[in-house]
Inverse folding.
C-alpha cells in the first residue's frame, strides 16, 4: 500500500491511497469542516465518502510531469511509465494549489 497526504494550498485536505491496484481518495473531516474549504479538484467534490477507482484519478494523473521532464524522471528513477502512483509520489513539486507528499511506511513523511 502506498499513500500520500494531499494539501490544497497549505491545508491538509485528504489522503490518496493505492492498494492492490485500487485507488482511494478522501477528504479529512477537519478539512471539510472549514468554512472556506475547497475541493482539490472539481472532479473530486467535497464529501465525506471516499472516492474509489481502478485507475489513478485523472486529476492526480495530470500532476505527473510530461514531455522532457517526464523523460528525465524515468531515466533517473527507473520507474515504469505505467506505474502512475510512483511517478506521482516522486514528483512532489507540482504547479497549482495542490501538493502531494508521500507517506513512508515507516510512519513519517
Amino acid at each position: 500500500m502506498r499513500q500520500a497526504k494531499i494539501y490544497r494550498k497549505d491545508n491538509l485536505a485528504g489522503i490518496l491511497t493505492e492498494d492492490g491496484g485500487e485507488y482511494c481518495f478522501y477528504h479529512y473531516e477537519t478539512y471539510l469542516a472549514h468554512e472556506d474549504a475547497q475541493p482539490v479538484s472539481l472532479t473530486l467534490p467535497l464529501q465525506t465518502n471516499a472516492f474509489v477507482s481502478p485507475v489513478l484519478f485523472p486529476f492526480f494523473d495530470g500532476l505527473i510531469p510530461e514531455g522532457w521532464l517526464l523523460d528525465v524522471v524515468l531515466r533517473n528513477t527507473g520507474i515504469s511509465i505505467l506505474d502512475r502512483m510512483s511517478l506521482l509520489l516522486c514528483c512532489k513539486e507540482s504547479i497549482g494549489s495542490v501538493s502531494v507528499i508521500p507517506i513512508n511506511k515507516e510512519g513519517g513523511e
User: Anything to note?
Assistant: The first strand starts at residue 2 and ends at 8. The chain has a mean pLDDT of 90. The CA atoms of residues 6 and 47 lie 15 Å apart.
